[in-house]
Amino acid sequence: MLHKLFNFSGQIVFVTGSSGQIGTAISKLFLNLGAKVYGLDVKRKKIKHKNFKFIKIDITNELQTNIEIKKIFKKEKKIDIIINNAGISVYSRIEKRSSIELQKVFDLNLKSIINIIKHYLKYYKKYKLKNGRIINIGSIYGFLSPDFKIYSKGKEPIAEIYGATKASVIQITKYFAVLLANYGIRVNCISPGGVLNKKTQTNKFIKKYSNRVPLKRMAKVEDILTSILYLASKESKYVTGQNIIVDGGLSLK
User: Fold this and answer.
1) Is 3.20.20.60 the CATH number for 8-252?
2) Could you give the C-alpha distances from 49 to 19, 36, 53, 144, in angstroms and in order?
3) Structure confidence at residue 41 as a pLDDT band (50, 70, 90)
4) Domain residue spans in the chain?
5) pTM for the full predicted model
C-alpha cells in the first residue's frame, strides 16, 4: 500500500547531511521507495546500496557545490527532490563565542541552502523541468527560545546563532515558495522538536525534555520521515511555503 501511494521509482533525490542520524534515515527511506539518492556530507558514507551515490563535500564551498549539482544534472538530466538537511550548532558559552563559530553555523545552516537552491534553479531551467520539490529542515528553535532548565549547566543549550539561522530557514522557505512557484517548484519546511538519540543524550535530559512535551516523549526519526514523505510526494501537490512543526505539542505550551 505504501509503495503504491508513495512511489519514487526513477526519481532523483538530493540529501545534504546524509551521514547524520536524520540524513541517513531520509536517504534509506527514499531508497526503499525506489529512488536514486545522492547523499552529500563531510563525513564518510554509512549507506551501502546500489542506488545510493555518496559525495564527500563541504557544502559551504559554493564552487564545489555548483560543480556537483552540475554533474548530477549532466548524468541524470534532473533532480526531483532536494532535502536541505545539513545543520550544526555551537555549544561554547556566549561570553566566549567567536566570530569564526558564528560564521561556520551561518554558512552551513543558511548560506549553503541559498546557494544550493540558486544553482539547482539554474540547471532546473536549463533542462526544462516542471515538478521540483525542495524540503528544508528547520527547528522549533527557529521560533521558540529553549527551556534552559532542561539542559546541563556549563554549556549553552542551543546557540543563539542556531536559532537565528533556523528562523531564517523558515523565512526563506516562504520566500522561495513564492519565487519558484512559476517554475513548478514547491518549497516547504519541517521544524522538528528534539529528536531522541541515546548515544548523545543522557537519561536525565531525555526525561526532562519529555516532561515538557504534551505527548510525553521526544521525537523518533520516523516521526519526521512521515512529514518529509508527504511533502515530497504528489499527495502534497497543492502545498507550498509551509512550515510543518513536528514536536509532540511542545510549542503549544
Assistant:
1) no
2) 14, 10, 8, 38
3) very high
4) 8-252
5) 0.95
